[in-house]
Design goal:
Length: about 80
């Protein structure tokens, strides 16, 4: 049972980065070395697989182009919680 959490072969690989202070555009590079620069959008209705990684109702952002996920910068003060339905 100890290794069950570490190895989940069926789960898709989800990349989560941490935003730099005031970062608004994706800084992922493509295989050609081109900067993605996609807009990071707040993502509210993420799937269960992501919820397991970041928790429910977490503040998470997603690049509109490469779909890389971004967590807010831990040094930045958290935004006031606004629930959206
Ligand atoms: Zn991107």
């Amino acid at each position: 049972m100890a290794e069950a959490a570490a190895t989940t072969p069926s789960a898709p690989k989800i990349k989560i980065k941490t935003r730099k202070p005031r970062q608004r555009a994706c800084d992922e590079k493509s295989e050609k070395g081109k900067l993605c620069a996609g807009h990071l959008k707040r993502w509210y209705d993420y799937p269960k697989a992501v919820e397991q990684l970041v928790g429910a109702k977490a503040e998470i952002y997603r690049c509109e182009f490469c779909k890389t996920l971004y967590k807010p910068d831990p040094n930045e003060l958290p935004r006031s919680y606004v629930l959206r339905y």
